[in-house]
Amino acid sequence: MLLLVALSAIIVPFIMLVVLKMPAAKGMAISSIIVILLAFSSWGMVGKVILASIFQGAHKTLTILWILFGALVLLNTLRNTGAITRINQGFQYISGDMRVQAIIVAFLFGSLIEGAAGFGTPAMVTGPLMIALGFTPVAAATIALIADSTAVSFGAVGTPVAVGLSNIPEASVPFFHEIAVQITSLDLFAGTFIPFILIFILTSFFGKGSGIKPSLAMLPWTLFIGITYTALAYLYSSLFGHEFVSILTSLTVLLIAAVTAKKGWLLPKTEWKEAMQDDFKIDTQKTNMGLITAWAPYLIVVSLLLLTRIVPWLNEFTKTAINLSWKSILGIEAINSNWEFLYSPGSILTVSAILAFLIQRKSSNTFTRAAKESISSMKTTSIALIATLAMVQVFSNSGLNAADLISMPQYIAQSFANNLGAIWIFVAPFLGELGAFITGSATVSTLTFAPIQYNVANQIGLDPQIVLALQLVGGAAGNMICVHNVVAASAVVGLEGKEGEIIRKTLIPAIVYGLLIGTAGFFAVNFF
To answer: Residue 221 and residue 259: Cα distance in Å, rounded?
Structure first.
């Protein structure tokens, strides 16, 4: 009975969004109410803790909405300045094939943003970019979410590794380095296939009924990109550790992908455009704006994200100058919500939008008009996110109860460990996925479940480093399906209410990634 209560935060949203196809605003509101009532009645959480958790969720919602606003206002500003038209022409120069564009924009540029910022930012940036390239909104959101996966283990300058594993007894920089190498060695098998899986989903769900031929035609190039990405990730993790794997790898492979795509190496001769919006027309009119000028705001985003995370004094300044964090909510020390305003990707995206109209020599009205458009499009999303985050925080804080029970996530993990220990090598990545699905963060998933994964591995004689690596990659795969990422990614492409439809599509590659990485772990344990 208690296991069902603990699993309610997974089962109920799945039923509401995926099975009953409710819009997230309604489905997550109902889910949140049910989970909160169960937490009160069956888990012994007292009213003050539940209320503090709801406030914590509301505060965290503001931090996500700020990132969402930054992503939207930057895109809308660039539309108003004409930069998006120039960026599109640049992509058309490399390749007009939407399959190639999906890999370059969603997978590689998204991985660069993930490596610098993390926390769901990539899908909020790449989704609108793909809309501007002509992708249908559902295709853009789906592909953006699936693509933001392989790089997530090393997102935000290695945060999932360094913070997620910080409560493991062996936690240290050398230990993080070893885990990074373990992750990338396992991903040589699993992660290599993600670009092809991405194209398979794109052509299968958003094509015109031509079967798997359009994806098979891309198999040589996508496997080349996949193995190049995972091999370089392994090299960089071996040389430099966990912090810069996603950043260095995506930068290198972006260059390789652009060159090979331009020359048509390993690519089919026929361009595929079946995911294009019906009324979309490619603007071929010449523009006076240079390509570097058009891309400058995004280059500023990446530069500022990196500088604020690796330059010590700037890191300290942005974390402390305007700190809107809420500590000890309602006097409960364990319930906090951080919001370091200047450090947030939302602030960096907004600053870049302001700089955009200055660099591109346009009127300030381009920004103010973009800001109004962005705010007006976020209303429904706000409701969905508040409900989602309230449920997540009650679930996460459920260890604070009067019934002397462990938290719901810990209860789930221990129940799985007791009953599925014999096949744990395959269970470990899916526990990571479950954690990310609920909490919306590979870091929080690992922080919550890593001690359990570590203990189970020691108890049943598995290599703890391999199991922890599986947890981290599973958390990364869970990024494709986590509710608040889906809500945010839907919002930036104007698809409020279609969250369940998107999850039904991203669920397939999330499961496949889990199976692939579990299989890699099995071979690593038994044959190497």
So the answer is: 12
